[in-house]
Design a protein that fits this description.
Shape: elongated
Largest sheet: none
CATH class of the domain at 47-148: Mainly Alpha
Oligomer: single chain
Order of helices and strands: HHHHH
Distance between the termini: 54 Å
Radius of gyration: 18 Å
CATH topology of the domain at 47-148: Four Helix Bundle (Hemerythrin (Met), subunit A)
Strand content: under 5%
Number of strands: 0
CATH architecture of the domain at 47-148: Up-down Bundle
Number of helices: 5
Structural class: mainly alpha
Length: about 170
Amino acid sequence: MKLPLLALFVIISSQAWSQQPPPPPPPQDGPRPLSGNPGSGIKSESLFPPELVMRNQKAIDLTLDQQAAIRAEMIKTLPRFTDLQWQLSSEEETLDNLLKLTSPDEKNVLLQLGKVLAIENEMKHLQLGMMLKIKLILSSDQQNRLREMRKHGQAKGMPPPPPRPED
């Protein structure tokens, strides 16, 4: 029962991340924003999404206790995240319908936008909280290995680094 929930969470969280417009390529050695919004101010270089840890658990020597703790954190987060995704879809649909009107009421549109942004904000809090808890479960050596793997494009599931311009 736990494995299907875990798989569902990975699918849902990867879909949520993929719904964001792709960020501009980060500097080769610079941090990447947590979300698709480069101005979010939250850098993810020091945070590790659960998919990254799961795909590289043998490479970073993740212990059984660490695996269990990360799974428990994901399972705890999944119900709220799923609920927020449903709410967000509904509120975005409402906003879209308001914007389709020939003469949308500015007050209603801005009120609806506030609802969408509040849900997105809560989702980001939830995601950041989970990734912070995952970081606290990992040893400093494991964190360093994940950072190095990500930096060199060696982490499973990570795109290769962009090609360097030729001189």
